[in-house]
Every structure is written in structure tokens, then in C-alpha cells.
Write a structure and sequence with these properties.
Blueprint: E1 2-10, E2 21-28, E3 31-32, E4 36-38, E5 50-57, E6 64-72, H1 81-84, E7 87-96, E8 103-112, E9 115-120, H2 133-149, E10 152-153, E11 162-163, H3 179-198, H4 211-218, H5 224-232, H6 236-245, E12 253-254, H7 266-273, H8 279-285, E13 288-292, E14 303-304, E15 307-308, E16 315-320, E17 327-333, E18 344-345, H9 351-392, H10 398-403, H11 410-420, H12 427-431, H13 435-449, H14 452-455, H15 457-464, H16 473-496, H17 500-504, H18 507-520, H19 536-558, H20 561-565, H21 588-594, H22 598-611, H23 632-656
Antiparallel strand pairs: 1-5, 1-7, 2-3, 2-4, 2-6, 6-9, 7-8, 10-11, 12-13, 13-16, 14-15, 16-17, 17-18
Helix pairs in contact: 3-22, 9-13, 9-18, 9-19, 16-19, 16-23
Pathway: Lipid metabolism; hydroperoxy eicosatetraenoic acid biosynthesis
Domain PLAT: 2-125
Binding site for Ca(2+) 2: 39
């Protein structure tokens, strides 16, 4: 007979406690104990509780390998269904033998209804480090169970694959929103919807009467950035600055040679460049930049309220004044085919001609951003990373412990998007210029061009040639965050992988990378995405890319959506008249009539307001309350990472105090660990 002490920690979230009965079996090298009830007088396992139990083993099972946890509803629970389905969130078990040090078994999972769960002692182990057959078997069985639970499906041809579930109601409890987050989400959406309904805006299918009338909707929800946008949206400097620090800061690139299909001349831009220089001189200096929305050429467009919508594929040439002056637009062509029906619009043109051309560019930014920068890069790819992590890495794997905080709620929000956003009859279908068909076509086109370097920020910045353009805070803050994540990942990899060979020999790691390549990037070798990893350096780069994509990149392109669109003319989701084919035709009336109708405007603004802010239950970048790592070395690395992020935040806030429009989207306390909204 041997007496063990069992300490159990229950989570603090609403509903984390349970009325069910819990018992454990201790698995050792020489056998497995019978079920040992964890029972006191009164109720156990209340939310936030840590409780001690004494259990007696009738026979010695040898050195402890595993802890099997059993959860059963109480007697007569068949009469009370809530008791039978009662969920419990277990944080961890601690097992103290008669002699020796205690064993800590991290859990951080929900157990719903009757069932069993196998836990391992918390030391992280790669696949080649497990030698006992029972531990090897446990890894395989855990992955087999998760691969059955989380399966892939092809949602649309040419898209990354996704989780095979139709509704968030069908999701496993461990990947669902918490009760608090779910309630806040629907309360926010409900209150906003009711406000729009009361004002009669969601049912009004006609055009806006004037810009002044649009101010009614602008008062819906104000932010300082939205108010700044309202005050400055017509200014050339603000128009250009949004390519650097707006919601789509990933497209601008340095221009050393004008595209042949964009025939800008010296005479066209002389008024902005000034005397003593030329286009060729500025191209050679590297002071010209290009934003090319060519991927939108001949894209499928939508029908809203029975009216066909229109799209453009503009090219925008920008000029960086010497001495650190503001970036300014030089010329805009609204198609990829120059000619008499595709004039090049200039700042010297009539006010309404120039404003309409800039507004067409902003509409292209909306389409490109929502379909590609946001949906594809910042939701669909993180879902691939999440699903592969759940399917290919067991809980004890150091990469699982490192990555699991960066997958929190991603499968929930993406499943919800497939229910409520990108399906017939919902907002993308009803209220955007491209609709579901255009979004799908755009993603298919982009997947053929997508490459690894575009997902790795330092390489992306170099490839686009924007290392030294002033005032590019997305670049500045993003590189700081990337560097902090990279150092953190490098330290963790260094702890568990002593050599390149140890990376090559980790079959679970290789299966994880291979599944991301096949299911996320559709086996396209031209993408440069690796299908296997051979070195520690390659592993660090890859994991850094995954964490950055799931956290900082999503924040940069998601958190500012409402700020940019609250004043709709700054970011119109659709255009109701075709792009102009000549100059001197635009008027205030034609400008208003080109913009989306009232109901579509409000539908999109409401949606982006909802999707720009976490609905409670946040976990900022580097916040790891679920302590999957128990060893001292990774804990030190986590603390160092958190200190680096805190210093980055202080630096950002100090800089922002001197800016008329602070750039906050990459301030670490604003960045969520994962894609969760």
C-alpha cells in the first residue's frame, strides 16, 4: 500500500467547476492502479479552487509515466441532463509519491460529460526523446484521437483547406469561445444592429443624398483615429500615408522603373516634383513608390439591391519628398490598360476628378485587403497552422506548448465567418462590390502567387524596397515585434533541439510542416514554403513566421478596420458606377452616386466595427496564463520575451505622443496572441 497526495487546480472561468465525480488511475512502468476517487465531504472542483486529496495504491506500479483522469456524472444524473453534460476545466494535477519530488501534469483542457483523459508529466519531449513503449504509444493514440476529431475539408477550390465543421455549435468545447467571450460578441453585435435598425439605415436601399447625410452614420461609434480620418480624408498626404500605416500596409513598393502600362510623363507630374528634377532622376534616386492593384483586373463583381457593381485595378505612383517630407500621390491610372479611355489622373486635375480617382483606389484597397490581406493571410492561413498543430503535435511536444496559445479561438472565429460572413445572404454577399464570387476568385489568383518571403516581414520589407521610407510605423513596430518573437523562438528551439539532425529526426515536426504545405499551400513548390525542415535556423524562421502571422500581422490588418471605414468615402466597400473614362466629368452628385447604397454602407460598417475589437477575454501577445512549459529554461525565456515586449510598448507609446495620428495597432498590449476575432 502506498499513499499518494493529489493536488488538483480548476480554472477560474465562468462554468469551469463541475458537479461530476473525478477519479484518477496512476500508470507506471509496472502496471496501472485501479480508479482512485478524488472525493471530500461536500462539493469538489469549484471554479478557481486548488484541492488536495489522499489516495492509496493497493500495489506498486513502478515509476510513474502517465495519469489517467476519469470524469463521471453523479448518480441519478440521467434525470438532470445538465449534470450529465457538465463540463470541467482542469488546469493541472500534481502527484506527490511517498518519497521523492512531486510530478506536475499540465492539462488546461475542458472535459465535457463522461470520459477519460490521459495526461503526461509536464516536461516537454520531442518524438525521439521518448523511449518507453507506453509513452510512445500514448503520443500516437493522442494524435489519432485528435486527427479523428479535427478533420480537413476543401471549402472552395483553390483555397487553403479548413476545419470540417458546419457550425460553431458542432465544435469541440476546447476550441469554442468562452462563455464570457461568446456573450460579449453577441451583445456587441446585437446592440449595434438595433441602433442601425432604429435609424432605418439597414433597410434603405437607395443612395446617400449628400456627404452631410453620411455624418449620421459617422456618429454611430467614434474613435480618435476615425475622427482624424473624417477630418483629413480628402488630403493627398493622408491618402498616401494609409499605404504605410492604414489597414493594408503591405502593398507599397519602391519603383525604379515605371511599368510600361503606366505611361506617366514629366509634364504630368512637374507641379508636384518641382523644378530641377525629372521622373527618371527620381526613379534613380529611389524616391518613387508604386501601389499596383493589378490582381483585381477583370475580377467578378457583385449585384447589390438589383444593381451591378463595379471594380477597378488601379496603379498609383507616389513621391517621397526629400528631407523627410510627406509621401504624396503623383498619378493614378484606374486600369491596367492605358489609352484614351483610361486617363491618368493627377493632383492638378479638377477637385472632383482627383477625389474620385483616389476613392477608386481606396475601393481597390478595401477589396484587396478584405479578401487577401485579412481573410486569406490573416485568417485562412492561421487556421491551417492551428489545425495542423492540433493534428500533428501531441501535448508534450515543445512546439505544441509554444504554439497552442497562438491558436486560441481561431477555429471558432473562422467557422463563425463561414456561417455569418462569407456565405450567400450574408454581408460579403449582400454588401461588398466583389461578393463571394469575387472574393473567391481573388483568393484563387493570390494563392498562385503567394510566396514564403511575403509571410516573413524582414524579407518582405527588403523585397518591396521600403527599408528607409520615413514614417512607416507598420514596418518599424513590426520588425521590433518580429525580432522579439524570433529571439524567443530561437531560445526555445535551442533548449529542445541540440542539432540540425535533431530537427530532421523529429517525425512529428516533419508531419506538421508537411501537412501545412499540402493543406495550406496545396503542394505548390513554387511558393517556397518548405514541405520539410532540415536545420534549426530554418525551424526558427518557420515558427517565427507562424506566431507573427497569428498575432502581430492579424492585429496590424484587423484592428484598424473600423477606424478606416467609419467614414465610408475613405474606404468604400463597393462602387455603383463604372470607373471614369475621361476627365472633367465628375461632380459632387456623381461622386455620391458612385458610392455604395445606404444599407450596404451600414452593413459593412457594422460588421467591421464588430470585427475590429476583441469581445472580452483577451490574451495579449506574450501572455501565457496556461503554463504548458514547466521547466525553468523555457520559463526564463518567456519572462525575457515579456520584458522585451514591454520595452517595445514603452518605445511605441513614447513615439506616439508626438504623432498627430498615433499608430497603435502593433503596440504589444493591443496585439492578441491569436486570431480570435
Amino acid at each position: 500500500m502506498a499513499e499518494f497526495r493529489v493536488r488538483v487546480s480548476t480554472g477560474e472561468a465562468f462554468g469551469a467547476g463541475t458537479w461530476n465525480k473525478v477519479s484518477v488511475s496512476i500508470v507506471g512502468t509496472q502496471g496501472e492502479s485501479p480508479r482512485l476517487p478524488l472525493d471530500h465531504l461536500g462539493k469538489e472542483f469549484n471554479a478557481g479552487a486548488e484541492e488536495d486529496f489522499q489516495v492509496m495504491l493497493p500495489e506498486d506500479v513502478g515509476p510513474v509515466l502517465l495519469l489517467r483522469v476519469h470524469k463521471m456524472p453523479p448518480a441519478m444524473s440521467c434525470l438532470l441532463r445538465p449534470l450529465a453534460q457538465d463540463a470541467w476545466f482542469c488546469r493541472w494535477f500534481q502527484l506527490t509519491p511517498p518519497q521523492g519530488s512531486p510530478f506536475l501534469f499540465p492539462c488546461y483542457q475542458w472535459l465535457e460529460g463522461a470520459g477519460s483523459l490521459v495526461l503526461r508529466e509536464g516536461t516537454a519531449k520531442v518524438s525521439w526523446a521518448d523511449h518507453h513503449p507506453l509513452l510512445q504509444q500514448q503520443r500516437q493514440q493522442e494524435l489519432q484521437a485528435r486527427q479523428e476529431m479535427y478533420q480537413w475539408k476543401a471549402y472552395n477550390p483553390g483555397w487553403p483547406h479548413c476545419l470540417d465543421e458546419k457550425s460553431v455549435k458542432d465544435l469541440d468545447i476546447n476550441i469554442k469561445y468562452s462563455t464570457a467571450k461568446n456573450a460579449n460578441f453577441y451583445l456587441r453585435s446585437g446592440s449595434a444592429f438595433v441602433e442601425m435598425k432604429i435609424k432605418g439605415l439597414l433597410d434603405r436601399k437607395g443612395p446617400w443624398r449628400s456627404l452631410n447625410e453620411m455624418k449620421r452614420i459617422f456618429n454611430f461609434r467614434k474613435t480618435p483615429a476615425a475622427e482624424y480620418t473624417f477630418e483629413h480624408w480628402q488630403e493627398d498626404a493622408f491618402f498616401a500615408s494609409q499605404f504605410l500605416n492604414g489597414l493594408n500596409p503591405v502593398l507599397i513598393r519602391r519603383c525604379h522603373c515605371l511599368p510600361k502600362n503606366f505611361p506617366v510623363t514629366d509634364a504630368m507630374v512637374a507641379s508636384v516634383l518641382g523644378p530641377g528634377t525629372s521622373l527618371q532622376a527620381e526613379l534613380e534616386k529611389g524616391s518613387l513608390f508604386l501601389v499596383d492593384h493589378g490582381i483585381l483586373s477583370n475580377i467578378h463583381t457583385n449585384v447589390i439591391n438589383g444593381r451591378p457593381q463595379f471594380s477597378a485595378a488601379p496603379m498609383t505612383l507616389l513621391y517621397q519628398r526629400p528631407g523627410g517630407g510627406p509621401l504624396l500621390p503623383l498619378a493614378i491610372q484606374l486600369s491596367q490598360t492605358p489609352g484614351p479611355n483610361s486617363p491618368i489622373f493627377l493632383p492638378s486635375d479638377d477637385k472632383w476628378d482627383w477625389l474620385l480617382a483616389k476613392t477608386w483606389v481606396r475601393n481597390a484597397e478595401f477589396s484587396f485587403h478584405e479578401a487577401l490581406t485579412h481573410l486569406l493571410h490573416s485568417h485562412l492561413l492561421p487556421e491551417v497552422f492551428t489545425l495542423a498543430t492540433l493534428r500533428q503535435l501531441p501535448h508534450c511536444h515543445p512546439l505544441f506548448k509554444l504554439l497552442i496559445p497562438h491558436t486560441r479561438y481561431t477555429l471558432h472565429i473562422n467557422t463563425l465567418a463561414r456561417e455569418l460572413l462569407i456565405v450567400p445572404g450574408q454581408v460579403v454577399d449582400k454588401s461588398t462590390g466583389l461578393g463571394i464570387g469575387g472574393f473567391s476568385e481573388l483568393i484563387q489568383r493570390s494563392m498562385k502567387q503567394l510566396n514564403y518571403s511575403a509571410l516573413c516581414l524582414p524579407e518582405d520589407i527588403r523585397t518591396r524596397g521600403v527599408e528607409d521610407i520615413p514614417g512607416y510605423y507598420y514596418r518599424d513596430d513590426g520588425l521590433q515585434i518580429w525580432g522579439a518573437v524570433e529571439r524567443f523562438v530561437s531560445e526555445i528551439i535551442g533548449i529542445y533541439y541540440p542539432s540540425d539532425e535533431s530537427v530532421q529526426d523529429d517525425r512529428e515536426l516533419q508531419a506538421w510542416v508537411g501537412e501545412i504545405f499540402s493543406k495550406g499551400f496545396l503542394n505548390r513548390e513554387s511558393s517556397g514554403i518548405p514541405s520539410s525542415l532540415e536545420t534549426r535556423e530554418a525551424l526558427v524562421r518557420y515558427v517565427t513566421m507562424v506566431i507573427f502571422t497569428c498575432s502581430a500581422r492579424h492585429s496590424a490588418v484587423s484592428a484598424g478596420q473600423f477606424d478606416s471605414c467609419a467614414w465610408m468615402p475613405n474606404l468604400p466597400p463597393s462602387m455603383q458606377l463604372p470607373p471614369p473614362t475621361s476627365k472633367s466629368q465628375a461632380t459632387p452628385e456623381s461622386f455620391i452616386n458612385t458610392l455604395p447604397p445606404v444599407n450596404a454602407t451600414c452593413d459593412v460598417i457594422l460588421t467591421l466595427w464588430l470585427l475590429s475589437k476583441e469581445p472580452g477575454d483577451p490574451r495579449p501577445l506574450g501572455t501565457y496564463p496556461d503554463e504548458h512549459f514547466i521547466e525553468e529554461a523555457p520559463r526564463r525565456s518567456i519572462a525575457t520575451f515579456q520584458n522585451r515586449l514591454a520595452q517595445i510598448s514603452r518605445d511605441i507609446q513614447e513615439r506616439n505622443r508626438g504623432l498627430a495620428l498615433p499608430y497603435t495597432y502593433l503596440d504589444p498590449p493591443i496585439i492578441e496572441n491569436s486570431v480570435s476575432i
